[in-house]
Specification:
With 316 residues, the protein is α/β, with parallel strands linked by helices. The chain is 35% helix and 16% strand. It has one domain: Arginase, Chain A. One of its GO terms (biological process) is urea cycle.
Length: 316
């Protein structure tokens, strides 16, 4: 039985969202199938979860057009996030742990907005861990690309078009103090100022280099209790591209395999994981599905894969 079994549902639901409509490169739309081919269902089942694969959501195709008033494909991004919001909300309401298989990181809007609404309704606290090479705190004024996968955290904090900021019916969906960003190493100058103005807590790669992943995770997870829902939004470009080449926006100098494993194992040790995004996997840029296999390996650690030194958490 999974060590999370006393604090999180044993039933998990996979929700595929095969779109790259919010990204600047094509290919993340193939991510859900690559994760399935890499054995994510068998891996989770092995760790005591009852896995329900809900298949893939449907939505508009990627029109691949330039930005309009600062946003690329806004209508399509909204449609996909509405579908994700509804699907994640349904799984949470049924007591399942939703696992979003992306797709680009703009989909984190719908996923986290659904989790935030669920926590408000249940009177639970929410902590979001944003594992990423990028802060994703851009606005249309700060980025010329208009790619919404660089904006989801800002939109969740209330900065952006109403169609996205009010996805859960209440804005902002998140307060900055609810988010911890880990592994950040690529931030635009204007975005950097905005992050500081809003007081986001960021454990960037310099912090990890200076203090180590263990200390960074201890700080990021501090204050969790039995009333806290922990959401992990795992952008695969969080990882160093030497070990995870299959992403559209590689940034050198990310966490090593062991650092990433420690990150995931410490999250698992809390017993608070309640929902998960796996996004930005781009099989078109991968090598023999290497990145998808690594992502599944790390997700196993989120759900209790352990070395000999780790003892199962006692039942409560």
């Amino acid at each position: 039985m999974s060590p999370l079994s006393t604090a999180a549902p044993l039933r998990a639901s996979l929700i595929g969202a095969p779109t790259d409509v919010g990204a600047g490169a094509r290919g993340a739309s193939m991510g859900p199938e690559a994760l399935r081919v890499a054995g994510i269902v068998a891996a989770l089942t092995h760790h005591g979860l009852e896995v329900h694969d809900r298949g893939n959501l449907s939505g508009p195709p990627n029109p691949w057009l330039p930005p309009v008033q600062g946003y690329r494909h806004l209508a399509e991004v909204v449609a996909w996030n509405r579908a994700v919001f509804d699907a994640v909300s349904a799984e949470l309401a049924s007591g399942h742990l939703p696992i979003l298989l992306g797709g680009d990181h703009s989909l984190g809007l719908g996923s986290i907005a659904a989790v935030a609404r669920h926590c408000r309704q249940q009177g639970r606290k929410l902590r979001v861990l944003w594992l990423d090479a990028h802060a994703d705190f851009n606005t249309s004024e700060l980025t010329p690309s208009g790619n919404v996968h660089g904006m989801p955290v800002a939109c969740l904090c209330g900065f952006g078009p109403r169609e996205l900021t009010h996805m859960g019916g209440e804005a902002p969906a998140l307060q900055p103090h609810q988010i911890r960003q880990i592994g950040i190493r690529s931030v635009d100058p204007g975005e950097k100022r905005f992050v500081h103005e809003q007081g986001l807590e960021v454990f960037d790669m310099r912090y990890i280099d200076e203090h180590g992943m263990r200390h960074a995770m201890e700080q990021a997870l501090a204050g969790l209790d039995e009333h806290t829902h922990l959401h992990v939004s795992f952008d695969v470009d969080f990882l160093d591209p030497e070990i995870a080449p299959g992403v559209g926006t590689t940034v050198p100098g990310g966490p090593t395999y062991r650092e990433a494993q420690l990150c995931m194992e410490m999250i698992a040790d809390t017993g608070r994981l309640g929902s998960l995004d796996i996004v930005e996997l781009n099989p078109a840029l991968d090598v023999r599905n290497k990145t998808a296999l690594l992502a599944v390996d790390l997700v196993e650690s989120l759900f209790g894969k352990s070395t000999l030194m780790r003892q199962p958490r006692p039942a409560r």
